[in-house]
Each structure stands twice: as structure tokens, then as C-alpha cells.
Amino acid sequence: MHYGFESNFCNPYSGHEKGSVENKVGYHRRNFLVPIPEFDDIREFNKDLLKKCDKDMDRAHYKKGRKINELFEEDKKSMLYLPKQPYEVYKYETAVADKYGKVKFDGRIYSTTPVFAGREVIIKANAYDVTILDINYSYIQNHDRLYGEKKESMKWEPYLDLMSKRPTALKYTGFFKKLPQSLQEYFEECEYQQKKAALRILKRMVAEKDLETATKAFNTAIARGVRDVDSIWAVYYTMTHKVIDIEELRLSGRIPLLNPYTVDNKSYDILLKGGDA
Questions:
Q1: What is the pTM of this model?
Q2: 3-state per-residue secondary structure call for 107-164
Q3: pLDDT in tens, 208-265
Q4: Distance CA 113, CA 156 (A)
Q5: Residue 100 in contact with residue 117, Cβ under 8 Å?
Q6: DSSP assignment letter at 83
Q7: Considering just the CA atoms, what is the radius of gyration of the chain in Å?
Q8: Burial class, 112, CB count within 10 angstroms (exposed 0-12 / middle 13-18 / buried 19+)
Q9: Which of 200, 207, 156, 204 is nearest to 178 (CA)?
Q10: How many beta carbons lie within 10 A of that of residue 243, not counting itself?
Q11: Is the distance from CB of 135 to CB of 95 less than 8 angstroms?
């Protein structure tokens, strides 16, 4: 109804009426999905797939003898305009977070925050995103939807906040085990207060960028022999912010020339002659 579609049902027991559509599915599967594609972002994959399909229309129609893209342009003249507001397709599902604040949806694991451990939450999911809401439909966390077996999506920022308050428990967390060996050694060597400060800095980096960038900043600083959090933050800031080019200072020609000044310390020599001077 939102897009103004009209239904046109096939006749019962008339499989030949659907054969053309099934052939098109097979054609696109063979030409665009074999071998099975691998990608990190389904949105970007769909954009690339659309470009390939547009390019594929630059060929003759099997029956009409004219190019498919020309026929498509003629068909578009009879189509309805798209609504200004897209139709949001999603499903709601309730779940109870485990003791770590994680929930399972469609066989995959998604994080919420430690605050929601053992509590009921609402999952709002579409083809691309999984949004976690509380029972009042207030936002908690958002994830890219996972596909594949035994997948887990963790947003560490809220967990880092808790870890910075309880730094001694860090090495017993799954997060610690996922860190590079160099960072594990760094945190194990830190004293209590330094570890708290380092975790707060790490949380700030993750909030601004991501865990990968934050890890790279820590590793770069450690490789340079830098271990205090202020210097580590300086390394991160240099990595993630544009360095301002400072132009050379040009002095005005009206500045008067000054005669060179030579320091004369002879008057102080008398102090070096001893007690009889």
C-alpha cells in the first residue's frame, strides 16, 4: 500500500507463467553471485551490484531485439513516483541479556551495556542493522546486522567505562584476551592508577574512532618507548587529526637593525681569584 503496488496473481497449477522470473533469478545468480562473493559491508556490496546490473542492461532483450536499458526507460514513464518517505521494514523481538549484557538474535550475539545484564530488552532489526532498545523503547546500542555462523558483535565503549572503574578485573575479561600481546603486557605492567587512566583514554579513543585505531595508537606509542597516558593520547591525536601547516614568519622591512651584542664576563673573573683577591 505504501508504494501503490497492485497484485497480479498467477493462475493455479500454471508453473510456466513463473518460469521467466525463475530464469532471471538463475541468470543473475550465475553471472553476479558465482563464485560466492565475500564482503564486509552489505550496503556497499549492493551499490556495486546495482552498477553491474545497470551495465548489464546495455544488451539486446532476448525477445524484443532492443536494448534492455532503452525498454526500461520507456517503462519508467508509466511507473508511479516513489513516496517522499521510505517504508521502514523491520521486526521487533524481545530478549533477556546474559550476565555480560549480551543478547542473541537470529543465532548471533550482540552487546548492549553492562547495566542491562540479566534484564529484558527489545531488538529492532532490519536487513542491515540491529538496534537494541530498553522496555520503554529508548535507544541503548546499534550494530551492523551479522550474517554467517557463530558471529558476535561487541561495542566495547560502555564496557570500557566499567573496566576503568574496576581495572584489577581487566585481565579476566574477554576484551583483554582480544588485545594484542603488546597491549596485554602494557596493562599488566601498569600500576592501579595508571591502568585506570589508560582505560579511560582507551575508552575516549574508541568513542571517537574505533578499537582498531585506538590499538594502533597504543602500539605506536609503546614501540617508541612511550608509556604515560598523556603521551599516548598525543600519538593518537597526531594520527587522527590533520596537522596544521604553519607558514614561515615574514618580517617587515621596517624593523630596525640591531648592533650585535657580545657578552663580556671579564667583570666576574675577580670572583674566581680566591680569598686574597
A1: 0.67
A2: CEEEECCHHHCCCEEEEEECCCEEEEECCCCCEEEEEECCCCCCCEECCCHHHHHHHH
A3: 888 889 999 999 999 999 899 999 999 999 999 877 777 888 888 788 888 888 888 8
A4: 9
A5: yes
A6: P
A7: 33
A8: buried
A9: 156
A10: 6
A11: no
